[in-house]
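Readers of this paper often ask what the protein records in our data store actually look like. This encoding replaces a full spatial description with a residue-level series of whole-number codes. For reference, a complete record is included directly beneath this paragraph.
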Amino acid sequence: MSKLVPRKIHQVIVWSGAIGGAVIGLTLFMLVLAGVFKPKVSTVRPPPISSTVPQQDIGEVQVVRQPRAETAIGTVRAVHEASVASKLLARVVEVRVKAGQTVSQGDVLVRLDDADLQARLKQMESAHVAAEAILERATLEHDRAAKLVEKNAISRAEFDQSIAVLKTAQADLQRTQQSVVESKVLLEFATIRSPLTGVIIEKRVEPGDTASPGQVLVNLYEPNRMQMVATVRESLALRLKVGDQVPARLDALEHDCLATVSEIVPQAEAASRSFTVKVTGPCPPGAYSGMFGRISIPLAEEEVLVVPASAIVRVGQLELVEVVREGTVSRRTIQLGRPVEDGYEVLAGLRAGDKVVLHKNGEDRR
């Protein structure tokens, strides 16, 4: 029995080694099939393109000093805007305007119900006529009392009373006169007129609505004087002053011009740490309040690496140039930035002084 145990142990060890070897072999076989031991991408670089390029077809990558600017986003607004509100509590009888309509100063925009105001005016006019009659009678009584007091026909007290009656009549006449003026003014409030010559932005009431004091009925603006209101971060706003000229652009109209800084609000917004800057300039046809615009704030000059535009070859989404070095031409992928006067800004792929091949077909050559 004791001799059989070592033999079984030996058999177990042999079988374990065989199984382990099979597992290792199978694993290696699968790794070979997966291509682990073979390079997926060839590490051999393609040979450079060797050719002779005429000297006149070779350009140079240069460092150019360019003016730098930062853009601030703004909104077109009218210099003069008006919100016409009601001063009365009355029913809207007529609305004579609609959005986009041009009106002149003094044109009727909205009419309110003025029946009660007309009645009040007539009452005040009647009271004024009565006051005139009372004053006329008081004047006659005073003149008669003045003659009688000279003859000692009446007492001095009676004469003083006639003076008091005359002054009271004069005061009543003035009061009724002012009441008539007040009634006419209130009656005029029932006819809402345009305070300026401009364009209607919005009407907020319809006939039959009830207008309350302070309620805005119509919004309008003056289209001949427009401005752009931009939000500028504080470090840039401190560079500006009233009267400076900055480039401005309206993207929707593709309009560029020089705008003049007309106002800088002397208070920064706590949330964004920015100032409100207003600029004015030539207003193109078709510019409306609320349109998107931008202004460019000049900064210090910067050095920019520039490659000629005719050296760029676009292949699909790639931007390439052919670099000449020691008589050998090699193609190189580059990363371009913004366009500049003499070509394009180079962000990566080239250095100052590199020689590049210029193509007659320009940058669109495929």
Q: What stands out?
A: The chain has four domains: 1-44, 49-66+302-364, 71-80+221-298, 83-193. The radius of gyration is 46 Å.
